[in-house]
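Problem: given the chain below (166 residues), write out its structure.
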Amino acid sequence: MGVAKRLGDFLVESQVDFEVVPHPYTRSSSDSAEAAHVDPDRLAKAIVVVTTGPERKYRLAVLPASSDIDVGELSDVVGEDLELAQERDLSELFPDCSFGAIPAVGAAYNLQTVIDSALNTHGDVYFEAGDHQDLIRLGGDQFHQIMQGAGVGSFSYPNRRDEFRR
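Solution.
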């Protein structure tokens, strides 16, 4: 499948240089990092959250693949009660992506985005291209350029999965 159409169009319109990094099929962002030989701290994974209550608004939370989301902390950061979105909502929000391969660029999908401060890096950043076999690589400055307008806060904690692989 390669780069999702909306994502590719957005990156071209944003005039950023990007590289597609192919890797063997994987089912998770941490597995993608391993397969592509990328530091999981530099792979931005996307998690869709939604406000609770009658008027449901979706947001994209972007955090390192080496971390897990703390939805309570994220709720505090954005000032709204949030919960994880249902899987059934994802195909409507990301119609050009394989299920579970959500790009970490909410602006391409008209979603407000919040970035975990742990991704505040000056090096390359990688994220899903919209399938389970490709990542996008951007320089840190270019990543911050396409994330203009996104909120920033601390809402993740290191996962322990990588400790068990070594």
